[in-house]
């Protein structure tokens, strides 16, 4: 049994920090959260001093197979599976060291993230909890086709969802629109129509799997919502030369309770590609519209897709929500803790410091409510009660 003590605590849901906390941990789970109470005699005390305890962070959108280099697609193509897997291990450990104890990998090659999922389940202190989508389902030569998930037509999509389920994925990822990382595709254009998306959703749900749609184009977003997806990645309403929010579609997202995963967070000093940079102000306005409409929002990062997106970038996403979008620190932190646990279907295990939850705990110096940059000063990380070295 362990007793982890610090000066402050954010439980993953509250709007204020509580003082003088001690988290009692046994067999990888939280037994109790106490304030100002004596430590049980049988517990080993870990006193972290002037630190804040938080739930381990959850990145709802990463790509461990991409190396965050200048040419992530070329880099992936040049490596065999053994080399890719070793790079993925290193990327996952980088995330864990930053306090990211759970990651949802939304696109790998050859289902390699499933290998890591099993490895880290056996050795929690070595890597984060991994949720894996396998290769994203995409049209022939569509966005990320080189990862191996090509499928055409209603029956082709259904078959590919079944194939993913048979491999044991945790979530289905489908490319409803093109993307920025694949020459020959266009973010502002749909890839699949409503019939194919409905087929994918129906098959995923029949098999007990959630399904998320990569969607930048307004029509792709509208079709994904009508098809019944559980969440939408990006949701930027891109056009050929700008951003065009569709109020009726935003209302439909909110009405259906579809979760939007905003892929925010970049390494300080980096700049987005010119096409995205030119749209950034309009995208910030769009995100405000989504929030005002009551759309459920979590924060992923798309980590791995280029130098601005290293695999430990999630704490910077929290800062962006506060500094760029005007969210309160508590609201921003919920998007990477309790709310992210919900979209990952882990709300019964992750995202909060409460009895019965996994002992995935981040300790940072200072007060992240006063300054979200405190998340960058990591004092300790625990994964299922094991302290990460």
Automatic annotation (TrEMBL):
<dbReference type="InterPro" id="IPR032466">
    <property type="entry name" value="Metal_Hydrolase"/>
</dbReference>
<dbReference type="GO" id="GO:0016810">
    <property type="term" value="F:hydrolase activity, acting on carbon-nitrogen (but not peptide) bonds"/>
</dbReference>
<protein>
    <recommendedName>
        <fullName>Pterin-binding domain-containing protein</fullName>
    </recommendedName>
</protein>
<dbReference type="Pfam" id="PF01979">
    <property type="entry name" value="Amidohydro_1"/>
</dbReference>
<dbReference type="InterPro" id="IPR011059">
    <property type="entry name" value="Metal-dep_hydrolase_composite"/>
</dbReference>
<dbReference type="InterPro" id="IPR051781">
    <property type="entry name" value="Metallo-dep_Hydrolase"/>
</dbReference>
<dbReference type="InterPro" id="IPR057744">
    <property type="entry name" value="OTAase-like"/>
</dbReference>
<dbReference type="InterPro" id="IPR000489">
    <property type="entry name" value="Pterin-binding_dom"/>
</dbReference>
<feature type="domain" description="Pterin-binding">
    <location>
        <begin position="130"/>
        <end position="389"/>
    </location>
</feature>
<dbReference type="InterPro" id="IPR006680">
    <property type="entry name" value="Amidohydro-rel"/>
</dbReference>
<dbReference type="GO" id="GO:0042558">
    <property type="term" value="P:pteridine-containing compound metabolic process"/>
</dbReference>
